[in-house]
């Protein structure tokens, strides 16, 4: 069994954990434990609800009574729930962490191997626990294998541990290339929106520069700015409201190529702050695989390699972003698409998982050898 302790709801948006763990399910039974949800106190709390979301992948969600404010009480309520799951399923072959804070719940388990897949600098996010950095250092010492979700994170984390492995955002190219085929039905919510259409999909949170987005929309009232994704950790009242700025909410992963097929450009208006310092947006190669030209604010892991190779335009102000969008929408696409496809040919989630799995298996063999030597 591969037991994953995550800070992300499985159904929020399909991103790195789902891509990797759905592939892991070819070899292991995967149990994905979400962070807890809270309800008014009742006789059925705390409880653990389990559901199968894919063949070989089960999601376990702890439901707890509202937090009483006592430090450590959330973890104390969750541990018996996890112990009940382990009593039924057995100790995990692999204990896979996305959040270091989950050590307080799962740190007493006895897996054959511990993996930390560091996909974000969680300590920089809004509302982050002050314990995160300390817990992460502890996890990086105890983990058998450590991965990072981008080059910037790799460069930061290898100062803590030398044998960190970098696996940047990858791509399910076949899925998004559907947008290039032509004839794909236009989503109903786009039909009344005039071109050019400038699109975004992803989580809407503190990592977006809402002022920049609004300024771009104000500069070009004849453009339709289309924003797809759930709003998380910020209030809906914080979202700018303009006649040409359209907040569509979340859409299933399966529907994204249909949206991309009817965009004229993709826009990634990330804020430049601590929360975005180390991000490696998965949407970058996804937009490109769909054949959609992209403009992004200067995020390091977008600049390298996408900006430096001229595949994505980089703009730091609203004026520059509008000019860059005008440029990418007007330039011929054939030569650009050839270079895009050449770059994308080197990456895929299948390839990333195969390389990760090889490192996991090698680490497991090393541990087995060490046990024999000690014996």
TrEMBL record:
Domain of life of the native organism: Bacteria
Keyword line: Transferase
Gene3D superfamilies (UniProt xref): Glycogen Phosphorylase B
Recorded GO MF terms: transferase activity
Name the record gives this protein: Glycosyltransferase involved in cell wall bisynthesis
């Amino acid at each position: 069994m591969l037991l994953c302790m995550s800070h992300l709801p499985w159904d929020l948006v399909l991103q790195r954990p789902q891509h990797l763990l759905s592939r892991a399910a070819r070899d292991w039974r995967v149990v994905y434990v979400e962070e807890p949800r809270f309800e008014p106190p009742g006789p059925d709390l705390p409880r653990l609800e389990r559901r199968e979301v894919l063949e070989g992948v089960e999601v376990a969600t702890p439901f707890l009574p509202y937090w009483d404010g006592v430090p450590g009480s959330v973890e104390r309520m969750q541990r018996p729930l996890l112990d009940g799951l382990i009593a039924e399923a057995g100790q995990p072959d692999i204990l896979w962490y996305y959040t270091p804070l989950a050590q307080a719940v799962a740190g007493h388990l006895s897996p054959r191997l511990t993996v930390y897949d560091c996909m974000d600098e969680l300590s920089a996010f809004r509302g982050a626990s002050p314990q995160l950095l300390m817990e992460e250092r502890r996890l990086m010492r105890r983990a058998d294998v450590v991965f990072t979700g981008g080059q910037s994170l790799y460069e930061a984390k290898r100062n803590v541990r030398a044998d960190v492995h970098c696996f940047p955002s990858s791509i399910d190219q076949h899925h998004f290339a559907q947008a290039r085929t032509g004839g794909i039905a236009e989503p109903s919510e786009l039909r009344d929106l005039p071109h050019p259409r400038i699109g975004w999909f992803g989580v809407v949170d503190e990592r977006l520069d809402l002022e920049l987005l609004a300024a771009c929309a104000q500069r070009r009232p004849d453009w339709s700015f289309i924003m797809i994704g759930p709003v998380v950790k910020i209030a809906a009242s914080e979202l700018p409201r303009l006649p040409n700025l359209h907040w569509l909410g979340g859409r299933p992963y399966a529907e994204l190529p249909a949206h991309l097929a009817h965009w004229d450009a993709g826009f990634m208006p990330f804020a430049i702050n601590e929360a975005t310092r180390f991000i490696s947006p998965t949407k970058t190669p996804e937009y490109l695989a769909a054949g959609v030209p992209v403009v992004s604010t200067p995020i390091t892991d977008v600049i390298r390699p996408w900006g430096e190779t001229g595949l994505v335009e980089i703009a730091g102000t609203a004026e520059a972003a509008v000019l860059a969008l005008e440029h990418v929408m007007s330039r011929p696409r054939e030569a650009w698409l050839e270079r895009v496809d050449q770059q994308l040919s080197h990456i895929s989630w299948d390839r990333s998982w195969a390389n990760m799995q090889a490192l996991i298996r090698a680490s497991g063999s090393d541990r087995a050898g060490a046990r024999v030597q000690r014996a």
